[in-house]
Specification:
By secondary structure, this protein is an alpha+beta fold. 30% of the residues lie in helices and 35% in strands. It has one domain. Strand 2 and strand 3 form a beta hairpin.
Amino acid sequence: MRRVVLAGLAACMLFAVGAWAVRLLVTAAGPAISEGVAARLALHKVAQEHPELKGFVVVRAHYEPVPWTVRDSRGRMQFSESKSGCPLMMVQLPSWFCPPAAVWAVELTAPPQGQWVHYEGFFLVDAKTGGIGSESFGSSS
């Protein structure tokens, strides 16, 4: 009985490691959408949500193949993956078995308008689908 349980656990672990390795290989192959497409998607999103603001430009766009944490051009953390794990059959695996999906991190800024001097936006664009997974927007005087 002990051998059967150990064999089952070993098979689950091999499957999990294999799935993890395949995900890393697919991620390492590079993004399905280009940096330019990701930047246009972020610009379109900010134009939809803040049509009163004009002149947004891309400050920086960079590819994050496994975005556990994502920082902006000033080194400030903008996003941190915090899931506790992922399910596999009836077992909850540690989070390092299921890395987050690759993203383009797109940082935007706009010139002074109205009462505010500085506008900035930060968007995580899914590198495979182009969906906006996370966003932040701020203004200051």
